[in-house]
Specification:
- This protein is an all-beta fold and 78 residues long.
- 0% of the residues lie in helices and 59% in strands.
- It contains no helices and five strands.
- Strands 1-2-3-4-5 form a five-stranded antiparallel beta sheet, with no helix packed on it.
- A hairpin with a 5-residue loop joins β1 and β2.
- The radius of gyration is 14 Å and the shape is elongated.
Length: 78
């Protein structure tokens, strides 16, 4: 699961802020999350994107961007 790839401190959780599709055939699904610490303060953000090819064999690729403390972590996989 993609959430296992995140670098979260103990006590931090994710809150889904928005979810939308983009592309002329809605081939990209984007989810935006806030990283919340144990005190309820937003300490970071996460953007998770799933892109589906519009031609057969309709492969999917994944893009994960996590921002926290001025550092951005980016990971892509298929």
């Amino acid at each position: 699961m993609w959430k296992q790839r995140l670098k979260l401190e103990e006590g931090e959780t994710l809150r889904l802020d928005s979810k939308y599709k983009k592309g002329n055939l809605e081939q990209e699904e984007v989810e935006l999350y806030s990283v919340i610490d144990q005190h309820g303060i937003v300490v970071g953000s996460v953007q998770y994107t799933v892109h589906t090819d519009i031609k057969a064999p309709y492969r999917q690729s994944f893009h994960l961007v996590q921002g926290k403390d001025g550092i951005t972590l980016v990971e892509r996989w298929i």
